[in-house]
Amino acid sequence: AQTVTQSQPEMSVQEAETVTLSCTYDTSESNYYLFWYKQPPSRQMILVIRQEAYKQQNATENRFSVNFQKAAKSFSLKISDSQLGDTAMYFCAFMKHRNFGNEKLTFGTGTRLTIIP
Amino acid sequence: SQTIHQWPATLVQPVGSPLSLECTVEGTSNPNLYWYRQAAGRGLQLLFYSVGIGQISSEVPQNLSASRPQDRQFILSSKKLLLSDSGFYLCAWSRLNDGSYEQYFGPGTRLTVT
User: Which helix (H) or strand (E) holds A41?
Assistant: First the structure.
C-alpha cells in the first residue's frame, strides 16, 4: 500500500516571501502521479499542480513549482511571491498509474499554510 | 466547461436517521466518480468509486452505500447514521489530461450527526 507523509502540520510566511512544503511517499510502483491540492477556508479542494513520475522535469504552474526527487521519494511544493489568497490547507496526493477507471488518490494529512500580511 | 455540484451543503441529522447526499457532474460524459470523507483536521479517505452506471466499488467497510442511477449522478446513502459518520463529504470526478489522470472536487457537504 502507498503512504503519503506531510511532516509539517502548520507553516506561516510573510506575504511576498517564498515557502516550501514538504511531502514524502512510499511506494513500490514505478509509474505513478503526484499532486498538490489546496483547500482554502471554503473547503473546496483545488488542484494546484501535478507531476508524472516518468518525467524528470519538475512541474511548474505560475508561482507554484515542485521539486520531485524520485529516488528519495520526495515531492515538495514551492510557492513563490506568496499571496494572502494562498492561505489554505495543502494536501499532497499519490495516484498509481492504472487503466482509466480506477485512479485512486492517497492523501497526506495536510499542511496548514498561513500567509501573514 | 465541466462543473460538479453537491447538495446539500450542510446537514445535521440525528443518530439512526437515514442519509442521502447527491452529486452531479455537468459538461462531460461517462466520468469516473468518487466519494471521499474528510474527518476534522485530517486528509481525505476514499469511500466509493464508480466507473459507470450501476458500477460501484467500496474501499472502506462501513454503514454507508453508494449508487449511480444515471451517468452523471452519484449518491451516497445510509439507512442509519452513526456519530462516527460526521465529517466533510466530497464528491470528485476524473478525466485524462495530457497523459495523466486528474480528479476535480465538488464543494462538499458538511454532515453533523447528533
Answer: none
What is chain A's Cα-based Rg? 14
Cell representation of residue B69: 442511477
Q: What is the rounded distance in angstroms from the CA atom of residue A69 to the CA atom of residue B72?
A: 38
Among A11-25, A75-89, B23-37, which is the least confidently predicted range? Answer: B23-37
Interface of A with B in 14-73 (CB under 8 A): 33, 35, 37, 42-47, 50, 52
Instruction: Report which residue type is found at B26.
Output: E
Cβ atoms of B71 and B23 within 8 Å: the answer is no
Q: 499519490: which residue's cell?
A: A94
Sign of CA dihedral A13, A95, A53, A3: positive
Q: Report the sign of the C-alpha dihedral through residues A5, A8, A11, A17, in that order.
A: negative
C-alpha–C-alpha distance, residues B33 and A92, integer Å: 20
Whole-number Å distance between alpha carbons of B35 and B92: 7
- Put simply, the answer to whether A45 touches B94 (Cβ < 8 Å) is no
* Listed residue (B73, B94, B84) closest to B20, CA to CA: B73
Strands B87-97 and A60-61: unpaired
pLDDT, mean of residues B56-69: 88
Q: How many CB pairs under 8 A join A and B?
A: 58
Angle ∠(A61,A66,A70) on CA atoms, nearest 5: 140
CA A70, A29, A77, A114 torsion-angle sign: negative
Highest mean pLDDT among A40-44, A51-55, A68-72: A68-72
Residue B13 pLDDT more than 90?
Answer: yes
